[in-house]
């Protein structure tokens, strides 16, 4: 037999290791920074065991955010800018990984692989683009080859395309991690992530994976963040200070909740391509609330986030003794969490499951990378039965 080339040999050797050291990277729709989770993994599938060894979010500088904003969720963009950002973000994320490793005093060559989500630039499920001849589509940039070459570490990236190729919408991928790490027989659980967009996974007590449901439910923080940027020159509503200083306008709230997205059957996905300030202005026009004071707008948008989550769960997951575990930056938004607590008895953040709520999505990508390298496709109802991710070698 011919020897494997060095890249394939390395891949084979890593796949055989009983314990792997993995970096999971997530750069979400909030554009707040890069989440870096250093984990160790052993096993795969339902036997997966992981430990979070280190976690950091490295905030993006304002200059970087505004560059990305130029192409983010925009129908029309400067194609040169997009091309430049694809290479730049890959290499920049590589630099941030090296910074984090140096801070933790960990040598890059002790990391087996990086699993990188990249930066979503445009999410276009058919429900949004409505062009019969085109499939579901999504675009994440920050090419894995640049990360691999910059860090010298094998990189797995671009996880969402296979999900679409196999019939999905490319999201939410949380399902795969939530089933492997968050399921407990005998307990009705929801794992709710409130990031830029809110999504949830329902894990039934009877262990029936055909009944697992994972879907986006509506805006998480994206509208509140956008209103804070426009009216208060702030990146977000820290500790709900603005929302708590305003009043919820119920006419506007009703108009926001009347969007057909909320009546569509789950699973479904969405993004800031739909939930943006133009959508809010349209609802303000419908409800004749264009003159609303900005703090009332932030209150109403915060109530919109909470109410759309509450409505979805009440309409779709009618089970007794439901336990809800929240993650994502929205878990730190007191206004939203207070409303959720009024609606549901049993709600905590995912740290009570031993899962760091800020790190959960970065851990998810580390886990998906582990599956890509040494897992088997698993059956989860009608969800695509695939292993996702593309391999980039450092040499
Ligand atoms: N102290 C706080 N008070 C209020 N809101 C907060 C606080 N801390 C974080 N947030 C919210 O959380 C957001 C960041 O959330 P997160 O990092 O989960 O988003 P993301 O990973 O970009 O999202 P997605 O899962 O949609 O890709 C901030 O933009 C802000 O809206
Ligand atoms: C296309 C895209 O980037 N979607 C994100 C976004 O952020 C939250 C929600 O919308 C979710 O569907 C998804 O991310 C998580 C990690 C997921 O796929 O589970």
Automatic annotation (TrEMBL):
The protein's Enzyme Commission number: 2.7.1.170
Signal peptide positions (record): none
GO molecular function list: ATP binding; kinase activity; phosphotransferase activity, alcohol group as acceptor
Pfam families: AnmK
Organism for this UniProt entry: Mucilaginibacter ginsenosidivorax
PANTHER family, sorted: ANHYDRO-N-ACETYLMURAMIC ACID KINASE
Catalytically driven reaction(s): 1,6-anhydro-N-acetyl-beta-muramate + ATP + H2O = N-acetyl-D-muramate 6-phosphate + ADP + H(+)
Function statement: Catalyzes the specific phosphorylation of 1,6-anhydro-N-acetylmuramic acid (anhMurNAc) with the simultaneous cleavage of the 1,6-anhydro ring, generating MurNAc-6-P. Is required for the utilization of anhMurNAc either imported from the medium or derived from its own cell wall murein, and thus plays a role in cell wall recycling.
Residues annotated for ATP binding in this entry: 28-35
UniProt keyword terms in alphabetical order: ATP-binding, Carbohydrate metabolism, Kinase, Nucleotide-binding, Transferase
Family under the similarity heading: Belongs to the anhydro-N-acetylmuramic acid kinase family.
GO biological process, one term: 1,6-anhydro-N-acetyl-beta-muramic acid catabolic process
Annotated protein name in UniProt: Anhydro-N-acetylmuramic acid kinase
Origin organism lineage: Bacteria, Pseudomonadati, Bacteroidota, Sphingobacteriia, Sphingobacteriales
Pathway in which this enzyme or protein is active: Cell wall biogenesis; peptidoglycan recycling; Amino-sugar metabolism; 1,6-anhydro-N-acetylmuramate degradation
């Amino acid at each position: 037999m011919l020897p494997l080339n060095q890249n394939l040999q390395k891949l084979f050797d890593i796949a055989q290791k009983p314990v792997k050291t993995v970096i999971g990277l997530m750069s979400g729709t909030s554009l707040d920074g890069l989440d870096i989770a250093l984990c160790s993994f052993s096993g795969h599938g339902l036997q997966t065991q992981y430990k979070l060894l280190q976690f950091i979010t490295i905030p993006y500088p304002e200059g970087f955010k505004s560059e990305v904003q130029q192409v983010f969720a925009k129908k029309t963009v400067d194609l040169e800018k997009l091309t430049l950002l694809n290479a730049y973000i890959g290499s920049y994320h590589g630099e941030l990984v090296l910074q984090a490793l140096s801070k933790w005093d960990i040598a890059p060559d002790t990391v087996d692989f990086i699993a990188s989500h990249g930066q979503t630039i445009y999410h276009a499920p058919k429900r949004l683009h409505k062009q019969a001849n085109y499939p579901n589509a999504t675009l994440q940039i920050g090419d894995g080859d640049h990360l691999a070459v910059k860090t010298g570490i094998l990189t797995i990236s671009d996880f969402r395309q296979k999900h679409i190729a196999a019939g999905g919408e490319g999201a939410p991928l949380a399902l795969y991690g939530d089933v492997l790490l968050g399921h407990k027989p005998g307990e009705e659980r929801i794992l709710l992530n409130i990031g830029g967009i809110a999504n949830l996974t329902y894990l039934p007590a009877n262990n029936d994976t055909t009944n697992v449901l994972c879907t986006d439910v509506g805006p998480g923080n994206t509208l509140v963040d956008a209103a804070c940027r426009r009216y208060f020159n702030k990146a977000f509503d820290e500790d709900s200070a603005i929302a708590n200083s305003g009043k919820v306008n119920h006419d506007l709230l009703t108009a926001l909740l009347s969007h057909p997205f909320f009546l569509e059957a789950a699973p479904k996905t969405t993004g800031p391509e739909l939930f943006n300030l133009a959508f809010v202005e349209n609802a303000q026009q419908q409800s004749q609330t264009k003159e609303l004071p900005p703090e009332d707008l932030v209150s109403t948008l915060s109530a919109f986030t909470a109410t759309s989550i509450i409505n979805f769960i009440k309409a779709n997951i009618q089970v007794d003794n439901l336990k809800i575990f929240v993650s994502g930056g929205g878990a730190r938004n007191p206004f939203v969490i207070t409303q959720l607590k009024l609606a549901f008895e049993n709600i905590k953040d995912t740290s009570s499951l031993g899962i760091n709520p800020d790190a959960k999505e970065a851990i998810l990508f580390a886990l998906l990378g582990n599956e890509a390298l040494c897992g088997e496709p698993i059956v989860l109802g009608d969800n695509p039965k695939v292993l996702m991710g593309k391999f980039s070698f450092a040499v």
